[in-house]
Each structure stands twice: as C-alpha cells, then as structure tokens.
Amino acid sequence: MAHHGAPSPALTPADPQNPEDSLSSLRTVILAASWHDTVMDGLIAGAERAAADAGADAEVVRVPGSFELPVAAADLAERYDAVAALGVVIRGGTPHFDYVCRAATDGLTRVSIDSRTPVGFGLLTCDDDAQALDRAGLADRGDGQPSVEDKGYEATAAALQTAALLRSIR
Ligand code: DLZ
To answer: Residue span of the signal peptide, if any (predicted)?
Structure first.
C-alpha cells in the first residue's frame, strides 16, 4: 500500500525457524476508544491485520473515549509487551477537540516512556469524517483505489517492532 513518505508498515510474518526473534510471542493488546464507530472499525481491522501478519494473538479492549486511553494503557502496559492505542477525535465547534487530543497524546507518551512498554499511536485527530475515514483505510476515493493510509495497521506494527527491538537489546 502506498504511503505519503511514511515507512512501509508491512510486517514480516513470524519466522517459525527462529522463535526467539519472532514477533508472535509478544503479548499484544489493541486498546480502542468507542467514538465514531465506522472509523474505529477500520482502525481495529487494520490493527488486527498487523497482529495477524506478525503471527501474534491480540485481544481488543474498549474504553469509552480517547480521553480514557492513557489510564487504560497504563494498566495494560503492566502485563503486555505491546499496546496499540486507537481513537478518533473529530474537530467540532469548541476547543474541546484540543483538550481531548492533548490529554490523550501527552498521556500515551507518558505511559509509554514510564512503563518502557511501546504504545503505538493510533489516535486520529481529524478535521472531518472524510479525513478520518481516509486515515483508517476506509475512504472511497472514487477511482477504485483504497485509502492511502492505514493508521491502525501502522500503530500496531510500530508497537510490535519497537517491542521486539527492546527485547533484543535488553
Ligand atoms: C466528549 C467527547 C467528544 C465531544 N468527542 C470525542 C471524540 O471525538 N472522540 C473520542 O474518542 N471521545 C470524544 N469524547 C469523549 C471523551 O474522550 C471522554 O470519553 C469523555 O469526556 C468522558 O471522560
């Protein structure tokens, strides 16, 4: 899938000859907010595809909104090797958007650093629904081509790859 200058998120399938190096043994959780159902479904589908490409089992844990992602991530980081945090915030007419985005972003950053557990950043902060659908891999671009973004996949692949890296250097 083409990306706007982003590194290819494709994950190499787990190597059965090399179980120690495999991504499949990483305990992985997909943490998902519950606003904007259709877009969330696309993000979660992308995240599950990334986990499947890695050969990893990933359970899905839901929180009410993106504001709740950091506290749940903090708890999950204690028992998982990789957390993929997914949410969608769409700009409205008030500054609320900025507060939720800031709280979720700062909170997830803090959790990741403090826990030393990679937290993939799959929070969409969008101006409108069309932008969010595109980033979640769900846009109908009208030319028979799919979206150029798949942020659920990217966030999960990044968390898994970082977790494997940390494991290899510890
Ligand atoms: C309240 C709210 C609003 C207005 N918009 C969103 C949104 O676009 N995306 C999202 O994930 N959550 C939203 N929320 C809910 C907050 O994240 C949070 O769940 C509530 O403020 C309760 O703490």
So the answer is: none
- Enter the ipTM: 0.99
Residue 120's domain comprises 25-169
Say which residues have a Cβ less than 8 Å from residue 86's Cβ, sequence separation at least 6. 30, 31, 32, 33, 40, 43, 44, 47, 122, 123, 151, 152, 155
Strands 82-90 and 28-32: parallel
* Any ligand 1 atom below 6 A from CB of 40: no
Give the closest residue to 123 by CA, choosing from 143, 151, 149, 96: 151
Residue 57 belongs to some domain of the structure = yes
**97 labelled ligand-binding:** no
Atom 21 (ligand 1) nearest CA: 67
Look at residue 52 and tell me if it is in a domain.
yes
How close is the Cα of 70 to the center of ligand 1, in Å? 13
User: Ligand 1 in contact with 88 (CB < 6 A)?
Assistant: yes
The ligand 1 atom at the shortest distance from the C-alpha of residue 104 is: 17
The pTM assigned to this predicted structure is: 0.91
Task: List, for residues 10-20, the tens digit of each pLDDT value.
Answer: 676 555 555 54
Ligand 1 atom with least separation from CA of 90: 8
Ligand 1 atom 9: residue of nearest CA: 89
